[in-house]
Amino acid sequence: GMVTISLKQGVGQIGLISVCEHQRGRGLGRLLIAAADRWMSEHGAHSAQVITQRHNKAACRLYEQAGYQIERLEYFYHFWVAGHSLSKC
Predict the structure, then answer these.
(1) pTM higher than the cut 0.85
(2) How far is the C-alpha of 44 from the C-alpha of 37, rounded, in Å?
(3) Which of 44, 47, 52, 68 would give a disulfide with 63, using CB separation of 3.0 to 4.6 Å?
């Protein structure tokens, strides 16, 4: 598994967290979050946050079990547009 962490102005943030699919369900995600929380605290964070997608039920459940709570919901819309040819003229 892996977790990325950042710290800015006293707020720690989990960026990415991932556990190999065949290793899930063994508590590794909880251990990664606990390690991230410990690192953030040791480096001066007064709070921590994580941004995830609400439809990612497994991630939401993992974070909620670790004590994280929904602070706010924001909606982002993505638009895909066709690119142009990169071939040389």
Answers:
(1) no
(2) 11
(3) 68
Question: Residue 60: how many CB atoms within 10 A of its CB?
Answer: 16
Closest CA to 68 of 85, 52, 50, 87: 50
The dihedral built from the CA positions of residue 66, 11, 13 and 39, taken in this order, carries a sign that is negative
| H or E stretch covering 72 | none
Residue 7 in tokens: 């710290």
User: Please, which pLDDT band fits residue 89 given cuts at 50, 70 and 90?
Assistant: low
| DSSP state at residue 22 | G
Q: How far, in Å, CA of 21 to CA of 16, rounded?
A: 15
CA distance 75 to 21: 28
The letter for the amino acid at 61 is R
